[in-house]
Amino acid sequence: MPLTALNASSAAAPLLELRQVHLRRGATQVFAGLSLALAEPRIGLIGHNGAGKSSLLRLLCALELPGSGQVLSQGQDLQALPQGRLRAQRVGMMFQNPDDQIVFPTVEEELALGLAPLGLPRREALARARDFLAGRGLAGWAARAVGALSQGQRQQLCWLALLLAGPRTLLLDEPFASLDLPGQARLADDIAACDRQVVVSTHVLDHVRDYGRVIWLHEGHVRADGPGREVCAAYETAVARELADARGARAGMRVAA
Ligand SMILES: Nc1ncnc2c1ncn2[C@@H]1O[C@H](COP(=O)(O)OP(=O)(O)OP(=O)(O)O)[C@@H](O)[C@H]1O
């Protein structure tokens, strides 16, 4: 689906929506009444460590269930959708740690897993996986053992698996973290060319600065929400102020001592 169509359909119901969501993880109340409608084709998520970015992504693909409130996919409660095909076609996630995502021993098998919701015979799913790799100049990867890939290569595999599976919304949790510079550029190009909704959590603001929408989470609340350039600039200003205050406080303590 072209991005323009994504935009047009967003006028009806957002692809994903949180309504008054409360979420507790362990001893931490992560969200207390968070509401968000996610309709734009590209959305960035930024904020300090522990702000709630991963928790939000996990809610959006039903890996975490809210204590109260609702997570909706095109107006339907995500929890009420049967696990498997229907849910897999709506939303998929690329994890921060590839080892949380990869389950099969070889690259082609891992890629074929993403096609399982289509109900293809195993042989055909594997053939499609190989074709997909060949189309990206990676034919030699097909039979490679996942355990013999580097961290960055495993992260790349996770992205390829999600891309091949092709849900309507792709949730990417710090997807650039282990990639070398060419890998980061390739992923950025892939995201730019992708005809799906993509939500990216990152600490590298340049990866989302040009997005139409960036959400800055702070301690489980939305601190700013708007065009990427404005929200990233506001975040950078706040971080600079925090650093200056902390340095000032340390200098004050040294003078007092
Ligand atoms: N598995 C867990 N069990 C208990 N609490 C957790 C768990 N994972 C995260 N939390 C808590 O939930 C809160 C939000 O964490 P989350 O991982 O969503 O933040 P984040 O913004 O993705 O952080 P980072 O930038 O470090 O990845 C934090 O206070 C964290 O301590």
TrEMBL record:
One Pfam short name: ABC_tran
Keywords (A to Z) from UniProt: ATP-binding, Cell membrane, Membrane, Nucleotide-binding, Transport
Domain (ABC transporter): residue spans on this chain: 16-244
CDD domains registered for this protein in UniProt: ABC_cobalt_CbiO_domain1
The organism's place on the tree of life at top rank: Bacteria
GO-annotated cellular components: ATP-binding cassette (ABC) transporter complex
Organism: Alicycliphilus denitrificans (strain DSM 14773 / CIP 107495 / K601)
Name listed for the protein in its UniProt record: ABC transporter related protein
